[in-house]
Structures are given as structure tokens and as C-alpha cells.
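Protein in question kept underneath.
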Amino acid sequence: MRHDPDPVDTRLGARLSALRTQHGWSLGELAERSGVSRSTLSRTERAETSATAAVLNRLCHVYGRTMSQLLSEVETAPDAVVRVEGQQVWADHTSGFVRRAVSPPHPALRGELVEGRLSPGADIAYDRPPVPGLEQHLWVLSGALDVTHDGTEHHLGTGDCLRMRVFGPTRFRCAGSDEVRYVLAVVRP
């Protein structure tokens, strides 16, 4: 039984296809540049599968965008105020990651706020930042989170805040038996 694709996945797939076309790349060329398999790229562009956070991160790196920028490109122009019911929520069901775009993204602004939630046992590794030199301030609202950055693991509890400039791999792992909820302030270089 085939389910209809999620509307966000459909718009995201179309945007990813358009970006690839704008760059004049074949699926094979994009696969080489991103390290994502040709079949995964094809299925994502056709909305046959939902992209994982790791796949989107690799594609954002290739296209020089943050994840919020990419996701905002599949939405209508943002208002100055985004009510909680209008904030875009994206879930990576494979890894147990839920991402809410709290602040309205805008191409003229360098900063954005994102709420992240990781279910117990969730473990997400990014091999590179979407934009090298990205500044991130991670504030844990509840739960425990282990973040590896620059080869150092940081154990964060409720109320703790980690500031980092991201040039290499990072890893986010829910360290407790309860969900971890955090705010990520992202500032493009």
C-alpha cells in the first residue's frame, strides 16, 4: 500500500532537484560532491523517502545553506511573527530527531533559532557543517545531551549552554532516559 508523500517532502524534493539543476550537476555528480548515494538523492528528489538530518546536512554543505535556509525555501515568504502553530516542524523518524524552526527565517538575517528534540537513544552525527564557520549556541531546556565538537565531548544538562564555531564533524546524542529538548541559536559567518 503506497502512501501519499508528505507535502513538505514533496516541496523539499522539488527544491533539491531545482538546486541540482541550477548547478548543472547530474545525480552522479551530486552524489560525488555530497557523499550521498545516487539512489538516495533520486528518491529524495521524487519524495519517495524523507531525507534524514544527516543527508540534508550534507546537501546543505554542498549548496552553502543552513538547514533552516533550505527548509525556508520550500515555504512561503515569512511573516515578522510566527505563531507556534505556524512554526515549521520537521522530523527525522529514523534517528528520533524533531526540529522546529522557531524564528522566521529571512535571507537578509544571519541568525535563527531552532528547537531540537531527541528521543532517548537518539544519536545524530554530522560529518561537516552546512556552512563552515557556523556559530552555534546550544541551550538545553530539559534532559541531558552529549555533544561532540572539535574532538571534545561535552555533557550538557538542563540549563547548560555550549557555544561553538563549527568547521568539522559534530555529534548530538540524547544522554538520558528521557527526551532532551534544546534551543539552538545559529549565526551564519
Observations:
- The helical segments are 7-22, 27-34, 38-45, 53-63, 67-72.
- Strands lie at 89-92, 97-101, 111-118, 123-126, 134-142, 145-149, 152-156, 161-166, 170-174, 180-187.
- The CA atoms of residues 69 and 105 lie 7 Å apart.
- The longest strand covers residues 134-142.
